[in-house]
Description:
This protein has helices at 2-22, 40-49, 62-67, 84-89, 91-109, 135-149, 183-195, 206-212, 240-254, 279-295, 379-389, 406-420, 459-480; strands spanning 27-30, 54-57, 74-79, 112-118, 156-158, 160-162, 166-168, 176-178, 200-203, 230-232, 235-237, 262-267, 307-310, 365-368, 434-437. By secondary structure, the protein is α/β, with parallel strands linked by helices. The protein has 2 domains: 24-328, TIM Barrel (Alpha-Beta Barrel); 365-459, Methane Monooxygenase Hydroxylase, Chain G, domain 1. The chain has a 9-stranded parallel beta sheet. A two-stranded antiparallel ribbon has the order 7-8. Strand 2 (54-57), helix 3 (62-67) and strand 3 form a beta-alpha-beta unit. Helix 5 (91-109) packs across helix 6 and helix 11 crosses helix 12. The chain is globular and about 70 Å long. It starts with a helix and ends with a helix. It catalyses: Hydrolysis of (1->3)-beta-D-glucosidic linkages in (1->3)-beta-D-glucans.
Amino acid sequence: MGGVRKWRVFVVLLFSVVLVGRVRGIGVNWGTQATHPLPPSTVVKLLKDNGIQKVKLFDADSNTLDALKKSGIQVMVGIPNDMLSSLANSVEAAEKWVSKNVSAHVSSGGVDIRYVAVGNEPFLSTYNGSFESTTLPALQNIQSALIKSGLANHVKVTVPLNADVYQSSSEKPSDGDFRPDIHDLMLQIVKFLSDNGAPFAVNIYPFISLYKDANFPVDYAFFNGYQSGINDNGKVYDNVFDANHDTLVWALQKNGFGNLPIIVGEIGWPTDGDKNANLQYAQRFNQGFMSRYVSGKGTPMRPGPVDAYLFSLIDEDDKSIQPGNFERHWGLFYFDGQPKYQLSFGSSRNGLVGASGVHYLAKKWCVLKPSANLNDEQVAPSVAYACENADCTSLGYGTSCGNLDTRGNISYAFNSYYQVNDQLDSACKFPGLSIVTDKDPSVGDCKFRIMIQTDSAHPHATLGSYSYTMLLLLFFFFTVL
Ligand SMILES: *[C@@H]1O[C@H](CO)[C@@H](O)[C@H](O)[C@H]1NC(C)=O
Ligand SMILES: *[C@@H]1O[C@H](CO)[C@@H](O)[C@H](O)[C@H]1NC(C)=O
Ligand SMILES: *[C@@H]1O[C@H](CO)[C@@H](O)[C@H](O)[C@H]1NC(C)=O
């Protein structure tokens, strides 16, 4: 008896190791819509230092891919939506894209590209259907190009879709199906993915559920603490991620594709820009997700390991805030690669490791002059200008700098503009209102940040060498004469 039981335990253990082993560690999304992005080599080191083995990109930037060379990190490259139409209309364009942005890196550079993401959430309702006719043909052309290049067995196509391509008529996942207006299109895409051994990629955002619905039960957005689970034919849902994911599983199953692999292309929680976007909630959500991820538990309809990419690696201060002010704060790391909170990826290491070798600008801030009059008619247009051209998403109700007084607000806006413009003197010249200080104006959680140096942020260096050359020339001129 005992022997049999031991064997059974061993087999179960072995089986779980095999299952868990199939999905490599967690992936992350690496977006680069920042005014001062970290150098790709710094980011790749950051990924390695944190044991991250998979990365999802939104384009196929060659500097980024070069930095990933021989890193051992698996890569999903991306095709932006604005390229879909040209790739849909031209097999040749698709072949060029694959040749330049996949084949070249795989063969010569040793970049481990595994997926091509064709478009990014192309069926979001805010796009008004703009990409509905081009997404599938682009997908088909890219797949043909991959086949022609001989890479199709190694590199799979997919389309990262927003979770509103499917819905449920009730709160139960079992009532799930694809959105009626794109139902046929979704079936064609799903069939194409299935025929080509490619996965369905979906972005799932419990934060957005909470953001959009004031009555959404907060605990249901997380992975612990929700008491009144939803019973769906004996399967109990105590968190919206599982329910959302399984709504997709039902939609696939109902239409004959119940076994199509699913990748969670984006999942995460922002830390600023909204009352529900803060460090505590983000830590709770991401750690909750990671603990389940590591356990390989899966969802009620799809037990077993989940394949997922956290959204996102680093904050991006140049993203559109059309979705909301939180949009620039999804990073596990701040813009400078410093961790925001403790997070365990399940290895022996217990926290996140920050980026190393980051160079900051000088310890200087631009603030409102203490003598400035708040009723000055230049105040409002100056703040508006600064916020429009920099980043004021940490101001406002419930945000990290939401408790600043009016003067603090104005200073925050001025400083953001000054830093985004690399602390140029001319960027702290709000008429009679601003002054540069070397005293950090940060208060508590409200940080007045100092920007980092980037390659493009060295106008002085160029100016310097230029003047030096001029001096030499002058010297030459006078000596010769
Ligand atoms: C390769 O990808 C880059 C970055 O996304 C893009 O700008 C470029 O147009 C692509 N090359 C081709 C040949 O399509
Ligand atoms: C979608 O339609 C709305 C309302 O008609 C419009 O305001 C918006 O600019 C459109 N968006 C796109 C991406 O076409
Ligand atoms: C500070 O700025 C934010 C965002 O513009 C605004 O909502 C808030 O009311 C301002 N607070 C004060 C005290 O001026």
